[in-house]
Design goal:
The complex is a heterodimer. By secondary structure, chain A is an alpha+beta fold. Chain A contains 6 helices and 12 strands. Chain A has a domain of about 160 residues: Beta Barrel (Thrombin, subunit H), CATH 2.40.10.340. In chain A, the strands form 2 sheets. Chain A has a 6-stranded antiparallel β-barrel with strand order 1-2-5-4-3-12. In chain A, strands 6-7-8-11-10-9 form a 6-stranded antiparallel barrel. The longest helix of chain A is centred in the N-terminal third of the chain and has 74 residues. Chain A starts with 15 loop residues before the first helix and ends with a helix. Chain B starts with a helix and ends with a helix. Classes of the chains: A alpha+beta, B mainly alpha. At the A-B interface, α1, α2, β1 and α3 of A face α1, α2, α4, α5 and α6 of B.
């Protein structure tokens, strides 16, 4: 007799084994469906957004308070030592500063050359605060308190202070998930400012947690012009990232075994450990579709990137 | 039954929120304890296979929706952990914390290794020893430390609910 069959006077129950089997299949179906469409994830995201996010928002204040206290305790001893060395350094730096002021004029002219000074100012941005960090230890993602109600869409770029943090991957009504560029499964197309060569920046958990750097590869540098400390920004050819957002600085370079390309490591400009507030750029880099034209997206996009015309034609076409 | 479900939901959401906010703030060696896993293991031990399975499933769904790679991934892993822990329900004495501790160690190592295999090994990150020493084991140690205060709390809540249910059953008869 099958164990599912109801016996007289007994409550109807499904044995655990069968339930486990049913739920396993359900999970597999969910995974397949979620990879292809967002039919299921959208309602789940909305429901959880209303239940969990307000709670997260409250408790994350406690979390950041504890983080501050912890870093204070850790830092006090270091700070005393650091203070002494820093005082010595100030003197050295003041001398250097005068020298650098002269270089600054040169830098400004170079900036005009690369048209980098307009990078962030012309984009429309919205600020958001981080309310939750990835609990899984494996990837570097976090959740902020703005969602599609605030006009956030997937693939919008996220910056903080000086440089690129990552991009929005999942959006709920009042929250969105940001995957940072240091995530192990993420690649960004970058460009060296000094030589304008393109390269690929990949997130890597191993190198990041051991020495705070992430690898780059596919760099063409036949004349060995690239040196440590060169600035890497997002490239023009990326279809997800706006051009000119700072990623980091070159830390080390090695020749690849094919002798054509080089790879190495870069130090990200963002301190991903202490992100509290981020800016989400509302302008997306994307193909112009008829839908966007209806929304008047083209007009806005065009206006905002007014000073950027020489770089943009490939996009507008 | 309904009270039990509501309590379980509150516990699940609380442990998920805590592990990403408060414990993110006081992280240790760059890792965060896995409170949802502690909850799954404890419920599996206290209540048996089915309860463990459901707690694992819904805990996993919450994790998936916010931080997981896709919906259903952590749900599947945690569901099996909850179910497997249900087998030890028969040899489980609630006052003895050694079995829960041992089961949390085994479950967390299993959870870490499966996550590594599916999320990293399949993408060609072959240096297993590095990930074991720097992520899986620190997470496991931190999780065990957190089990010591967290498990008695779940135990007290469970005993309270059981007493309530018994009282109600008596009234009914």
């Amino acid at each position: 007799m099958s164990p599912i069959v109801k016996k007289k006077g007994e409550k109807f129950t499904i044995p655990g084994k069968y339930l486990l089997f049913i739920l396993t299949i359900l999970c597999c179906v969910l995974m397949v469906v979620c990879v292809t469409t967002d039919v299921i994830s959208r309602p789940i995201n909305s429901v959880l957004g209303y239940v969990v996010v307000p709670y997260q928002r409250g408790i994350s204040n406690i979390g950041s308070y504890l983080k501050d206290r912890k870093s204070e305790l850790v830092n006090i001893r270091d700070l005393i030592n650091e203070n002494a060395t820093l005082r010595e350094k100030i003197n050295e730096l003041e001398i250097e500063n005068t020298k650098l002021m002269q270089d600054k004029y040169e830098l400004n002219s170079l900036r005009e050359l690369y048209e980098l000074d307009m990078t962030y100012d012309t984009y429309r941005k919205v600020g958001a605060s981080v309310i939750y960090c990835d609990s899984g230890n494996w990837f570097s993602t976090f959740i902020v308190d703005k969602g599609y109600k605030d006009g956030i869409e997937p693939d919008m770029n996220v910056v903080a202070g000086k440089g690129l943090v990552g991009r929005v991957t999942i959006v709920g009504p009042n929250w969105s998930k940001i995957t940072s560029i240091i995530s192990d499964n993420f690649n960004v197309s970058g460009k060296l400012i000094s030589t304008s060569e393109n390269l690929i920046v990949s997130g890597n958990l191993e190198s990041l947690s051991s020495s705070g750097v992430i690898p780059f590869s596919q760099l063409i540098d036949a004349d060995s012009k690239v040196t440590k400390g060169d600035k890497i920004v997002t490239s023009d050819i990326s279809n997800k990232y706006l051009p000119g957002l700072i990623i980091g600085y070159v830390d080390s370079i090695t020749n690849d075994s094919n002798n054509l390309t080089k790879s190495g490591y870069l130090i990200p400009v963002i301190d991903f450990e202490h992100l509290d507030n981020v800016l989400i750029i509302l302008d997306k880099k994307q193909e112009i579709t008829p839908e966007d034209e209806e929304k008047g997206f083209t007009a806005i996009d065009f206006e905002d990137n007014d000073g950027n015309l020489p770089e943009e034609p490939s996009q507008e076409e | 039954m309904i009270i039990r479900i509501i309590v379980a939901a509150i516990l699940l959401i609380t442990s998920f929120v805590l592990q990403g906010t408060v414990f993110e703030g006081i992280s240790f060696a760059g890792t965060v304890p896995n409170l949802v896993l502690i909850l799954t293991v404890s419920v599996g031990l206290m209540r048996g296979q089915k309860s463990g399975m459901f707690i694992g499933f819904f805990g996993g769904i919450i994790m998936d929706a916010f931080v997981g790679p896709t919906i259903g991934f952590y749900a599947l892993i945690l569901m099996y952990i909850g179910y497997a822990n249900g087998y030890f329900n028969k040899i489980f004495f609630p006052e003895d914390i050694k079995l829960p501790l041992g089961m949390v160690i085994i479950s967390d190592l299993f959870y870490g290794c499966i996550s590594y295999m599916l999320l990293f090994l399949l993408r060609g990150r072959l240096d297993f020893s590095y990930y074991l020493l720097h992520i899986i084991i620190p997470e496991c140690v931190y999780t065990i430390l957190l089990t010591v205060p967290f498990y008695p709390l779940i135990f007290i809540i469970n005993r309270f609910l059981e007493q309530q249910e018994q009282r109600r059953a008596k009234k009914f008869v």
